[in-house]
């Protein structure tokens, strides 16, 4: 029996990912309004602001706000897209800044200059045969909606969002086929201000506020799917989650259950968005904590009848949990979700000490596909490190090593496990402001941007060693990873 040579499908979408609030800059240019993300500072207060425990609704003196400047993609987009095309990108994941379209969020009419900017970007992408994959909101909300309604805690924000979604889907009909609704929607539970514009009033109200915002975003996501399909039946709309398999620290049943419950906590969001209703385990949890889901008349119908076409997620590393607080286990660094250090994982010497677990990506892909049987898309994957520019070159072997191992895991999931994977957009294909730290020195990209943590520099772009490597990967459809 002759074995068939297996690999990535011919139509696989290779590319890279960015977010408007981390790269665009030009924060008040051409009619754009302030977004809540603009006032998330760099420094010691950043995490408290992101988690909603510290109010940041006014600009403070002697404080640097990195999203205001980003990497100035607003003025460099043609140059940057040309570099993406040189690597051979088939798809570019980006987001639309809501405040660039509706500066206050409550505006009667959209900002034409903002609409035109994204049309110009899409035209530039199509010039090189690159498909846009567009996130409708990637951690950005017009600041005025936070001041008036406390972001997604209010149902009023749903109505503002529906108007925004209808506007962009109408304007870009035929220009954009692939859409994502909310970036890493499950991060609301950990970072309610950053992900949903919710300032926590008190610890007693915390869960009530968070899960009210969660419900509103879930309903808004379903409305976005409905609107997208009504405007253009060819639109494909996905959800987006922060993902990663959770392991038990021991084979003790308590640890196994804790790992299961932890993973289920992330799947809750996709359970609703893919299956169209709240799962029983979450309803029981809400019953225990005394939370009544703020259902309105249409909510159940729109959730049930307008589920997503595909599932996208970010994967950086896996998590490890232990039920016994007396077990001594070192905590590991991560993006959002807390984790113990896994003694079975080796890590490269990166400044942020992330644990590298490529096999965990294969496991995560299988978990999603076995649970839902829906097409999958890896919308973020990468590792941040400190890169040094020397004579116009950056040697970033650690990037190549990380990405190589994860692409191998993707291939195994496709060819050995039968996972339906549409595409892959590695995170921060060009260096940009880090979401977690607000720094520039935490670099993920194939392209080095000459800017420091305080936004000082020439902003000139330089190709890293990983640029040529990824170009080869795409050209060979994932076959040549050396």
UniProtKB/TrEMBL annotation:
<dbReference type="GO" id="GO:0005829">
    <property type="term" value="C:cytosol"/>
</dbReference>
<dbReference type="InterPro" id="IPR001360">
    <property type="entry name" value="Glyco_hydro_1"/>
</dbReference>
<protein>
    <submittedName>
        <fullName>6-phospho-beta-glucosidase AscB</fullName>
    </submittedName>
</protein>
<comment type="similarity">
    <text>Belongs to the glycosyl hydrolase 1 family.</text>
</comment>
<dbReference type="InterPro" id="IPR017853">
    <property type="entry name" value="GH"/>
</dbReference>
<dbReference type="GO" id="GO:0016052">
    <property type="term" value="P:carbohydrate catabolic process"/>
</dbReference>
<dbReference type="Pfam" id="PF00232">
    <property type="entry name" value="Glyco_hydro_1"/>
</dbReference>
<keyword id="KW-0378">Hydrolase</keyword>
<dbReference type="InterPro" id="IPR033132">
    <property type="entry name" value="GH_1_N_CS"/>
</dbReference>
<keyword id="KW-0326">Glycosidase</keyword>
<dbReference type="GO" id="GO:0008422">
    <property type="term" value="F:beta-glucosidase activity"/>
</dbReference>
């Amino acid at each position: 029996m002759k074995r068939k040579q297996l690999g990535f499908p011919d139509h696989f979408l290779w590319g890279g990912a960015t977010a408007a609030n981390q790269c665009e800059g030009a924060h008040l240019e051409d009619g754009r309004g302030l977004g809540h993300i603009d006032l998330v500072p760099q420094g010691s207060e950043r995490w408290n602001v992101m988690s909603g425990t510290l109010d940041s609704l006014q600009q403070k003196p002697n404080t640097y706000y990195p999203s205001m400047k980003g990497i100035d993609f607003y003025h460099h987009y043609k140059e940057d897209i040309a570099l993406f095309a040189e690597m051979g990108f088939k798809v570019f994941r980006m987001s639309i800044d809501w405040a660039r379209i509706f500066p206050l969020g409550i505006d009667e009419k959209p900002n034409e200059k903002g609409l035109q900017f994204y049309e110009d970007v899409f035209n530039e992408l199509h010039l090189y045969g690159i498909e846009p994959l567009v996130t409708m909101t990637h951690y950005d909300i017009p600041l005025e909606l936070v001041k008036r309604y406390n972001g997604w805690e209010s149902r009023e924000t749903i109505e503002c969002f529906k108007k925004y979604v209808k506007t962009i889907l109408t304007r870009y009909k035929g220009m954009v086929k692939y859409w994502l609704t909310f970036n890493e929607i499950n991060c609301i539970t950990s970072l309610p201000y950053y992900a949903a514009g919710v300032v926590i009033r008190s610890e007693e109200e915390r869960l009530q506020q968070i899960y009210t915002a969660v419900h509103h975003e879930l309903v808004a996501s379903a409305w976005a799917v409905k609107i997208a399909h009504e405007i253009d039946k060819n639109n494909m709309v996905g959800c987006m989650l922060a993902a990663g398999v959770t392991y038990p620290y021991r084979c003790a049943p308590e640890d196994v259950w804790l790992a299961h419950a932890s993973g289920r906590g992330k799947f809750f969001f996709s359970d609703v968005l893919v299956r169209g209703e709240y799962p029983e385990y979450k309803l029981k949890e809400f019953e225990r904590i005394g939370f009544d889901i703020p259902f309105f008349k249409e909510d159940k119908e729109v959730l049930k009848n307008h589920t997503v076409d595909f599932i996208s997620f970010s994967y950086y590393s896996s998590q490890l949990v232990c039920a016994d607080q007396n077990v001594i286990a070192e905590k590991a660094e991560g993006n959002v979700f807390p984790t113990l250090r896994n003694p079975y994982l080796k890590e490269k010497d990166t400044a942020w000490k992330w644990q590298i677990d490529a096999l965990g990506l294969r496991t995560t892909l299988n978990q999603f596909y076995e649970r839902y049987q829906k097409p999958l898309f890896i919308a973020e994957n990468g590792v941040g490190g400190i890169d040094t520019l020397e004579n116009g070159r950056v040697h970033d072997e650690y990037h190549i090593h990380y990405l190589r191992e994860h692409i191998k895991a993707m291939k195994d999931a496709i060819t050995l496990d039968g996972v339906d994977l549409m595409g892959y957009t590695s995170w921060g294909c060009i260096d940009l402001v880090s979401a977690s730290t607000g720094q520039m020195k935490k670099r993920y990209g194939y392209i080095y941007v000459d800017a420091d943590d305080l936004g000082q520099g020439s902003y000139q772009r330089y190709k890293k060693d990983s640029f040529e490597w990824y170009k080869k990967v795409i050209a060979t459809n994932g076959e040549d990873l050396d």
